[in-house]
Amino acid sequence: xxxxxxxxxxxxxxxxxxxxxxxxxxxxxxxxxxxxxxxxxxxxxxxxxxxxxxxxxxxxxxxxxxxxxxxxxxxxxxxxxxxxxxxx
Length: 88
Known about the structure:
- With 88 residues, the chain is mostly beta strands.
- The protein has one helix and five strands; from the N terminus they run ββββαβ.
- The chain has one domain.
- Helix content is 8%, strand content 50%.
- A five-stranded antiparallel beta sheet has the order 1-2-3-4-5, with no helix packed on it.
- The chain is flat and about 50 Å long.
- The relative contact order is 0.21.
């Protein structure tokens, strides 16, 4: 997985805006697909960014590699289908 950051409205911090997974390489370019995306919805009076991290429904390819290696990831807590609101 790869992370992508953005500068917040206060200019003093950076936050993650997306979490893509690498699908492979084609024509010497990385092919990526977002697993989580950040939807900015506003800014508080204190200048904190408001928004939510939204699962795109895509599961990272490494989950299958983990399963093959004997590491079980619980289907009951599938974070790849959730949305979480945040104040950054």
